[in-house]
Specification:
Blueprint lengths: L2 H46 L3 H6 L1 E7 L3 E3 L2 H15 L6 E9 L4 E7 L5 E7 L5 E6 L1
Parallel strand pairs: 1-6
Antiparallel strand pairs: 1-2, 3-4, 4-5, 5-6
Length: 138
């Protein structure tokens, strides 16, 4: 086989391999972002409905609580969620829109826009086998 034909075949294989790798990466990112948005929505909804055990199960520690407090254990986090529900009560608030603001391999920042509110809540989600919320700021 002459050199020119060999180089053309090599280039075709490289281009095909790169396009497959890019497609896999895009699919993985879309799946990761979708999973992060689903977990953020479930976390928020469970907290608003006063289901703090569910909220805690969707969380991981260390947890950045509203940018003001770093919670180190699941039991402390559950207590904090219970205090929030006791103080504010159960509410029927739901996100009107959800989008990914930013992402890295370590975390996905999801913005939840809440009905009857013109501000959003930033929810930080840690990707992995089980996606978990690791913080929020409202």
């Amino acid at each position: 086989m002459n050199f020119t034909i060999a180089m053309k075949r090599f280039a075709a294989v490289v281009v095909f391999s790169a396009s497959v790798a890019t497609a896999d990466r895009v699919d993985t990112n879309v799946e990761r972002d979708d999973s992060a948005m689903q977990v953020a929505k479930a976390w928020f909804t469970s907290l608003m409905q006063g289901e703090t055990a569910v909220t805690t199960s969707l969380s991981d520690v260390p947890f950045n609580f509203d940018g003001k407090q770093q919670v180190q254990t699941h039991s402390d986090l559950k207590q904090l969620y219970d205090q929030v529900v006791a103080k504010k009560g159960k509410r029927d608030l739901k996100p009107t829109s959800i989008r990914v603001k930013s992402c890295s391999p370590e975390k996905v920042e999801v913005i939840l826009m809440i009905e009857d509110d013109d501000e959003g809540i930033d929810v930080l989600v840690k990707p992995g086998e089980a996606f978990r919320v690791v913080g929020f700021v409202d």
